[in-house]
Amino acid sequence: MDFEMQEQIAAFRYGLIAPIVSRQSPMLPGELKHLLEEIASRTYTIPGSHRTTVSTRTLERYIANYRRAGWEGLKPKPRPATNRTSIPLSVLQAAIDLRKERPERSVEQIIFLLEQGSITAPGSIAPSTLARHLRKAGVSRQELLHNATPQKGRRRFEASDVHEIWQSDFQHTLYLPDPTHPGKRKKAILFAIMDDYSRLIVHAEFYWDEKLPRLEDSLKKAILRYGIPEQFYCDNGAAFSSHHLLRICGKLGIRLSHSRAFRPQGRGKIERFFRFIDTSFKPEAYNLIERGDIQGLAQLNNALTAWLDGYYHIRKHGGTGQTPLARATASKRTMKRVPISELTDIFLWEENRKVDKTGCVHVFGNIYEVPCELSGEKVKLRFDPFDLSVIQVWFDGKRFPDAIPLDLHRSVHKRVKTKPSESIQEIEPSPGEVNTGELSFFHLAEEKQREGWKSIPLTFAPKPDESRGDEDGN
């Protein structure tokens, strides 16, 4: 079994047990048994298997393996590779037509119809092989039955405490002067993470793109400040659906969940926040952009921070009746945290490469030297995409000395850079723009933020008891 399939299976198994292992509050008597039975009662599309259900005993084994060895404990043990039987296209098309005709038909029923109809020879198709091809063609029984289910009404949901659930999403917010193309503008994209219970923005930042490294950057900053949430809720975009994000959540014990495709209602809170950004923050930002007071991402993010802490967080929210800051600080919840060194290591990217006979590996156009005893082996490389000069070398679960750069053409991964031509438009004059003079909304919000800091009492460590020292003769 190759590395990719092992990762997919580990991701599936973690998705099953995430509601249990990501739980940071103690469970009530009998709650664990109820959760296991509920998870086991559902049907799934299991990677590398024709089975559709998982027993409670298997779930208990997954939980034990995860708590013992983390993400690696969820990977299956290597097995000898087996040859996969291919299916002729005409036979596969007939199977697809039979499934579409009656989505309730099982794989065994479809094989029976193919054999009895003399479309294929008896015993020539394995159920697991046909099931895999049907899933790849998008006609699995689960998918077809789900699409045929009529939509039902939805009910509002809210987490029961602060930092139980974080919602996140990107927004194409506004345009800034392009730093590399004078006379043109470049799109600034906002990424925000909101606490579901308090509506507190645990982190928000503008970037030039909406790729995975921007999501990782914001998530890491939010965790460093507030701790590890139980659940990270997002949409099905490319950045959110990456296997790397799932691995990060698995190692941190976070339950990663996605809203259903084409159903943004599940992310209503973060979407409402973006609408407030459009009506409150965006006009004020454009005012300063036209005046030349905001010309880059750093200045824009400073204005965003002032707006959040000096206005949004201390403004009463219409849904909760409290300010986000007051609702969040009223909780007595103790957050789970990890050391910064461990957190940095968890966010490293991973690539697999085979070491050539000279003890070198080629990665992203660069050449690195690794220990000679790894020649001919397939090693795992772990690295920070913002610094390709340092790459960790792992083999068979053991870390070896870091790779030595021999030919470093690229010091930064191409995915963390934004192409200069992206999100650019011509600057057009904006007639009717009102100049409000010296009055700046963000300046006033920043002053409000500083006033809030003054209201926070300072505490100091208690002084030694001088009188007691005198009694001791010191």
TrEMBL record:
<dbReference type="Pfam" id="PF00665">
    <property type="entry name" value="rve"/>
</dbReference>
<dbReference type="InterPro" id="IPR009057">
    <property type="entry name" value="Homeodomain-like_sf"/>
</dbReference>
<dbReference type="InterPro" id="IPR001584">
    <property type="entry name" value="Integrase_cat-core"/>
</dbReference>
<dbReference type="GO" id="GO:0015074">
    <property type="term" value="P:DNA integration"/>
</dbReference>
<feature type="domain" description="Integrase catalytic">
    <location>
        <begin position="146"/>
        <end position="332"/>
    </location>
</feature>
<dbReference type="InterPro" id="IPR036397">
    <property type="entry name" value="RNaseH_sf"/>
</dbReference>
<feature type="compositionally biased region" description="Basic and acidic residues">
    <location>
        <begin position="463"/>
        <end position="474"/>
    </location>
</feature>
<dbReference type="InterPro" id="IPR015378">
    <property type="entry name" value="Transposase-like_Mu_C"/>
</dbReference>
<feature type="region of interest" description="Disordered">
    <location>
        <begin position="417"/>
        <end position="474"/>
    </location>
</feature>
<protein>
    <submittedName>
        <fullName>Integrase catalytic region</fullName>
    </submittedName>
</protein>
<dbReference type="InterPro" id="IPR012337">
    <property type="entry name" value="RNaseH-like_sf"/>
</dbReference>
<dbReference type="InterPro" id="IPR009004">
    <property type="entry name" value="Transposase_Mu_C"/>
</dbReference>
<feature type="compositionally biased region" description="Basic and acidic residues">
    <location>
        <begin position="444"/>
        <end position="453"/>
    </location>
</feature>
<dbReference type="GO" id="GO:0003676">
    <property type="term" value="F:nucleic acid binding"/>
</dbReference>
<dbReference type="Pfam" id="PF09299">
    <property type="entry name" value="Mu-transpos_C"/>
</dbReference>
